[in-house]
UniProtKB/TrEMBL annotation:
This is LysR family transcriptional regulator. The keyword DNA-binding applies. GO terms for cellular component: protein-DNA complex. It holds the Pfam family HTH_1. It comes from Saccharopolyspora elongata.
Amino acid sequence: MAKLGGSGNPSIQQIRLFLLLAEELHFGRAAARAFMAQPTFSRHIKSLERDLGVALVDRTSRRVALSAAGEALQARMRAVVHAMQELRREADAQAGSGRIVIGSFEAITSLPPIPAILDELRRRLPQLEVQVLRTGFDATEAVSRGDVDAAFLFLPVPNGIRALPLDSGPRCAAMPADDPLAAEGPLALADLADREHIGWSDRVPKVYQDFWAVDPRPGGRPARYSPHAMGDFESGLQLIAMGGGLLFPPTVGRELYPRPGVSYVDVTDLEPWTSALAWLPANHDKPFVAALRKAARAVLSRTCG
């Protein structure tokens, strides 16, 4: 274990940044997730290593890997971040004010009834700071890690996460505009049997992958996947435009994500999407999560009743 002779006290920010790096194992991607320039991000990691007195990361020109110390301290750092979050939440709840961090899968917060739910929450708790954090396909992972208190996302979710369904709607095929089938629609899944679906990041839950890729297809045939993996929906659209495969997103993607080289084609036998509010069982009774749930149910009762 490399020792650097440190004696400083690391900050919570430094610890959070290291945990991002531990997930990505890539300074550029981790810096992007932190909305930070890569040189600044690297300086924070080096400062943390000096403060702790150990090298946390093994760096080469080709790869980044956690050192033995980094592996050993990672779980302890997650516990520190979680404890600080709990302290802040409890103090805010006692004071009757504070902040709730809500994850938003891509642009889902533009879909009804989510804007009305956020407005209702702010009306009920005007002193509450509501922070909406945009996520990608790792939305459920953000909930599980405690990066967000709750999240608006699309079902399904893996076991261990609770969800309140909000709305549903049709899906379509997002495919290369020069695909011969792009001009034909509406299509059936059988028409697309030989088309490859864009690949998934390893962080995306299997239950989510299977639903959105329709895997297996009707009749039990496994879906075919391209060798290209997407980190988020935007990168998926870029791959589609380059002829790298297709996706089966909500039909509303036509309006939210128009892109050159991408055609949205109706597919008659796709299961509809369902949006939901999701949270961890451990957060169920936390004041602001409970308030968000109540706001959601109030809006649903008005719109559905």
